[in-house]
Amino acid sequence: MNNQYLTDEQRVLVAKMEYQLLTPGQKLQLGNRTLGIVLQHIYTADGFQAFVIGNRWANPRQVTILFKGSSGLIRGNKETITNEWLNTNFPILWSLLFQNHQVPAQLTTAARMLNRLLKQYPQAKFYLYGHSLGAINLQYALAHCRYLGRIKQVNLYEGPNLYILMNHREQQRVRKFKHKTDNYVDVNDPVTLGYYDGRHLVGKLHYVNCEPLPPVTAHMWGGYRFWPSGRLMTKRVDEDFRLVADRQQQLMAIGASMNASWRQWRMAAQEQRAEFQSRLQKLSPSAVVADGLFNRDQLRKWWDDVVE
């Protein structure tokens, strides 16, 4: 089955396979047709997971990579909660809210693995899927992909907007993939943080036309509706989208201001500490009592002078 001719509905079904425990050698069916055979299940020490599917076992000409999303806080175990949430999801949320840019290990692993797979299957065209955490990893991997011409199509579902955390070089790189990348966003899903227009994002924005739903349901494609042809129901950016975007921008602006204030306070505290240590080094012998401790009154006076 050629990925290029799948409908939107079929692509969502393919993306949902990332939450199954796929094993190498397993044949995957999409309806009554064969999607392909699982070539690899990549699972690294930092928790990054991806499934590699080929149209055939040897020398595939078409490769599909499913970047796996989070296992969930309830269904996950200690390892997945640590790797997926504490070490990746929460740091990305923190970065978005407080504009404190950091790159968790899974993201760099995703970039390295994508380039490795592109090199491993030199004859293949690649189709990439990522939902939630998978969409986070995939966005970063695209920003560091060295084989632009080998990527045929990218599908991103319900992930935060990593574009606003990227540096100039990374943004330039992902802009080269814009015509190949579809980015699907349901504004009822709180995970889709950071989208405020149709330009500053990885790929082309597809604003899902759906009714308000509980957050978890919305996050797991619950609001996606399709025409009989299999095409996803979408709509243009409207007032609801702008209201959500405005609230998110206000929240991130507050966070950025708090982070800037914290950085200034920390820098001032470090300068004061350095000054205090410098004064201690110049402390005269008369300030030392018989048991070797500093005279508290003199230290207190010097510290008050530093703070002032």
UniProtKB/TrEMBL annotation:
SUPFAM superfamilies: alpha/beta-Hydrolases. Gene3D superfamilies: alpha/beta hydrolase. InterPro entries: AB_hydrolase_fold. This is DUF2974 domain-containing protein. It comes from Limosilactobacillus secaliphilus.
